[in-house]
Design a protein that fits this description.
By secondary structure, this protein is α/β, with parallel strands linked by helices. The protein contains 11 helices and 5 strands, in the order ααααβαβαβαααααββ. The chain is globular. The chain binds zinc ion. The site of zinc ion has 7 residues, from α7.
Length: 238
């Protein structure tokens, strides 16, 4: 009896251990696949919609604490001969909104353009034209965030050195949101201006770039907007 119990237990645990080993192996294999750097073939096989979906899924992995941890130095070697990222993110310089981390992306996966207040101007549009026309990205995401100091500074009409000129790029969003003279500390005011700023940024990309507008019209490029909540890491697509 004791022997049978022992045998059953051994069988039980042996099977469990084997199942666990299989799971670990499958997981390692999945991670190894996910760690393969993007190349042009993989990039172009992805539709613009799939590119946005991958950012969405990446944020969900991040929120589930299931981020994929790759050997970054190996990725440096894999991408040393060239890059084929699938998307570009225009985000704020805020230290709490690093695109590669919150979208769980690796070296060579996304272009990341960051500037205080994530506004879009001619220089940034030019960078995105390079990203699309030369490198072949499938999607552009303009990413705003809650608690943005630049947005608050613009609402409060802050004047400080060269920052004054930086914040002037956000004035159209303050005006479009109807928040001139509003309380910049109020979270609903900041949200209204930040989301308006994202929408204006998205619109300016096609308004001011015939090149990007043509790609969007042909269905070869998708431009999306989103807001990142710095209190929980969640990205909400607009
Ligand atoms: Zn910010």
């Amino acid at each position: 009896m004791a022997e049978n119990t022992f045998t059953r237990r051994s069988l039980c645990c042996g099977v469990a251990a084997a199942a666990a080993a299989t799971t670990v192996a499958a997981s390692s294999q999945a991670q190894a696949g996910a760690c393969t750097a993007f190349d042009a073939m993989r990039q172009q096989a992805m539709s613009p919609g799939e590119a946005i979906d991958e950012l969405r899924r990446g944020n969900q992995r991040f929120l589930n604490s299931e981020s994929i941890h790759c050997d970054l130095l190996q990725q440096v070697h894999m991408t040393s001969a060239g890059q084929a990222p699938f998307a570009a993110v225009v985000g704020c310089m805020d230290s709490r909104v690093p695109p590669e981390l919150i979208f769980d992306q690796q070296i060579g996966s996304i272009f990341s353009i960051r500037i205080a207040g994530n506004y879009v101007d001619t220089s940034i549009t030019g960078g995105l034209e390079f990203a699309n026309a030369v490198v072949g990205i499938r999607a552009i995401l303009v990413l705003g965030h809650t608690g943005c100091g630049a947005i608050r500074g613009a609402i409060d009409d802050v004047k400080l050195g060269n920052l004054t000129e930086t914040l002037a790029h956000l004035t159209p969003a303050v005006e479009a949101a109807g928040m001139v003279g509003a309380d910049g500390a109020a979270s609903n005011v900041m949200w209204a201006v930040a989301t308006e700023n994202v929408r204006l940024g998205m619109a300016s990309l096609t308004d001011n770039s015939p090149l990007l507008a043509e790609q969007v019209a042909k269905g070869e490029l998708l431009i999306a907007g989103a807001m990142h909540d710095i209190s929980n890491g969640q990205v909400t697509f607009l």
